[in-house]
Backbone:
């Protein structure tokens, strides 16, 4: 069963993130495949995750939806097995809060994007508001330990640090959940 927040907000945000995808598309950290329903059937998508359990769940979803355009691979975003300049678009949703070395993973994304290729991020991150951050720090005590997810990652700064050029930032829930469009210049 899907969580309330998934139904109320995230489905809409996922549809929005996926709407930016063009050409050869790479999704990193596909998880259980929550974005799979939103990809048009004529878009070629390679979706990776380093967890075999997640890939298995995503494969079941792909099968159920008959999404033959999605190719699933077990792979670490910090060591992508694709040549430079392979993809037109990359998509990640709620991934760079968990990747052990996020700047390394983001630099790998940049490497496999074609020049002018777009990287689309739907991610939660640290806020610019100290009061909100206080709440996030408290939540992080639980999330980091039990879910392996950081509530206080500075993902927008990490994206810039990887060498990707940030083109658009949309604040979707306060400035905690953001849709970021970046480019390999
Ligand atoms: C919070 S889940 C989000 C899953 C999915 N993107 C979604 O929106 O529901 C984060 C996912 O990123 C994957 N992940 C974390 N670090 C990774 C890495 N270094 N390489 C590939 N996948 C990774 C995890 O296995 C997990 O499936």
Residues:
């Amino acid at each position: 069963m899907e969580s309330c927040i998934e139904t109320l907000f995230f489905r809409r945000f996922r549809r929005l993130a996926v709407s930016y995808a063009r050409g050869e598309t790479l999704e990193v950290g596909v998880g259980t495949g929550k974005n799979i329903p939103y990809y048009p059937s004529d878009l070629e998508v390679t979706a990776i995750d380093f967890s075999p359990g997640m890939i298995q769940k995503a494969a079941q979803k792909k099968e159920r939806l008959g999404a033959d355009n999605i190719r699933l691979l077990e792979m670490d975003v910090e060591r992508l097995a694709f040549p430079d300049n392979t993809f037109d678009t990359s998509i990640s949703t709620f991934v760079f809060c968990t990747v052990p070395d996020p700047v390394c993973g983001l630099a790998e994304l940049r490497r496999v994007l074609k020049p002018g290729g777009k990287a689309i991020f739907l991610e939660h991150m640290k806020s610019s508001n100290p009061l909100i951050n206080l709440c996030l720090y408290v939540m992080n005590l639980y999330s980091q330990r039990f879910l392996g997810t950081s509530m206080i990652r500075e993902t927008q700064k990490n994206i810039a640090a990887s060498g990707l050029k940030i083109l658009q930032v949309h604040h979707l829930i306060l400035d905690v959940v953001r849709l970021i469009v970046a480019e390999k210049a």
Observations:
- The radius of gyration is 16 Å.
- The chain has a mean pLDDT of 97.
- The first strand starts at residue 25 and ends at 28.
- The chain is about 35% helix and 25% strand.
